[in-house]
Amino acid sequence: MAETSDKTENEILSQLVAASGANVEIWQDEKDKSQRLAVNSNPCGIELRLMNSKVKSWEKTLPAFLDKVKSGAAFYDLLAYANENKLEAAGEKAKKYAVLTKEVVKETTFHAKYKPNNTLETVYFTDSVTKIEDDAFANSKALRAAVIGNGITDAGYETFYGCDLLSFVVLPANLKKMGGRAFAGCPALTDVEFKGTIAEWENVENKEVCMLQCIPATSVKCADGVWDKPQLWIVNGELKKCIYENVENVIIPDGVTKICNDAFSFQRSLASVTIPNGVTEIGTSAFKSCIALKSIIIPDSVVKLDGFTDCSSLESIVIGAGVTDINWMTFCGCKSLASVEFRGTKAQWGAIVKKDTTFSQTQVKSVKCSDGEVSVG
């Protein structure tokens, strides 16, 4: 090879890449005139910034890096080699693969609202980054992978909101809190890795909203095993939400005392639900538009009943003797409902707080009580 001074830096880089046979993309940055090299290493890519003033240095260390690329080395191995051999990983100005080292990732740096961002595919946070401002990567439509370093303890609010192609995320072991809706609007996010243990993941605050409701991933890979997403999101005895879509049969476990508003709403495949004795309240729209549900038994422990609006296939219901309050909209749109049994007496049924129109949108003509029938309407 001729001396460096006889060739342009771009020629040197091009020859090294051609000799290696590695599949990489190269170009020259328009602003600082540095040579750039990008590697799409699944699931994350890496971009190097090769300063022309240091060409004699990177000319010696780059061939081994390119050999690693050709052999299919993992992203982490490539990044480690780059760091050890002074091959600078590009930061905020990276074309596709950004390695972030600043203490705070600003909202305006990557947010598509402030800066058109249709090229960034991978972002990697080094441990030096300690804060992510809210919405920092919102609507980054090309973003596919994010690796967050151990400097982050709070993932921020709507950090990756609306990143349609985001499919792979690595979360740090030091993570203590998931910001509200951090991954909302990420329909492709199926691969999540947490660097800590399963026990540590269980203690991450607010993970339920971010990781259970907002994304399709069914598990989180932890350092000591796999944490499987539960079918039901239950907190302190309250059933917040049925997490999986298209669920057909659900057995609510003992210990649940409340089925919250919208817990099963629009679960259109739900055909059967077993509610344990101990549940005292069924919230508004809890089973709204569960159009496959045909029958249900309400245990005696339930005091407040609501939640079956627009269950168009519901034909029969057994209501426990403990019910004292039925919301007037409970059975609105239940056009198939014809059979209602109440485990208490006619006197108890008469004492329930309800409206004369409770069954007006159903086929119910009477309620069967333990000591006879009561006409309705």
Topology of this protein?
Elements: H1 9-20, E1 25-28, E2 35-39, E3 46-50, H2 55-70, H3 75-84, E4 97-100, E5 104-105, H4 107-110, E6 122-125, E7 131-132, E8 145-147, E9 168-171, E10 191-194, H5 198-202, H6 207-213, E11 219-222, E12 225-228, E13 232-235, E14 238-242, E15 249-251, E16 258-259, E17 272-274, E18 281-282, E19 295-297, E20 304-305, E21 316-319, E22 325-326, E23 339-342, H7 346-351, E24 366-369, E25 372-375
Helix pairs in contact: 1-2
CATH topology of the largest domain: Leucine-rich repeat, LRR (right-handed beta-alpha superhelix)
Number of helices: 7
**Order of the strands making up the biggest sheet:** 4-6-8-9-10
What is the average per-residue confidence, as pLDDT, rounded to a whole number? 90
Strand content: 15-25%
CATH superfamily of the largest domain: Ribonuclease Inhibitor
The CATH class designation of the largest domain is Alpha Beta
- Compute the separation of the termini in Å: 96 Å
Low-confidence stretches: 1-5
Question: Which architecture of the largest domain per CATH?
Answer: Alpha-Beta Horseshoe
Main pleated sheet: 5 strands, parallel
> Which structural category do the helix and sheet elements fall into?
alpha/beta
Domain count:
3
Give an account of the 3D structure.
- This protein is α/β, with parallel strands linked by helices and 377 residues long.
- 16% of the residues lie in helices and 23% in strands.
- It is built from seven helices and 25 strands.
- The protein has helices at 9-20, 55-70, 75-84, 107-110, 198-202, 207-213, 346-351, and strands spanning 25-28, 35-39, 46-50, 97-100, 104-105, 122-125, 131-132, 145-147, 168-171, 191-194, 219-222, 225-228, 232-235, 238-242, 249-251, 258-259, 272-274, 281-282, 295-297, 304-305, 316-319, 325-326, 339-342, 366-369, 372-375.
- Strands 4-6-8-9-10 form a five-stranded parallel sheet, with no helix packed on it.
- The protein is elongated and about 100 Å long.
- 38% of the residues are buried.
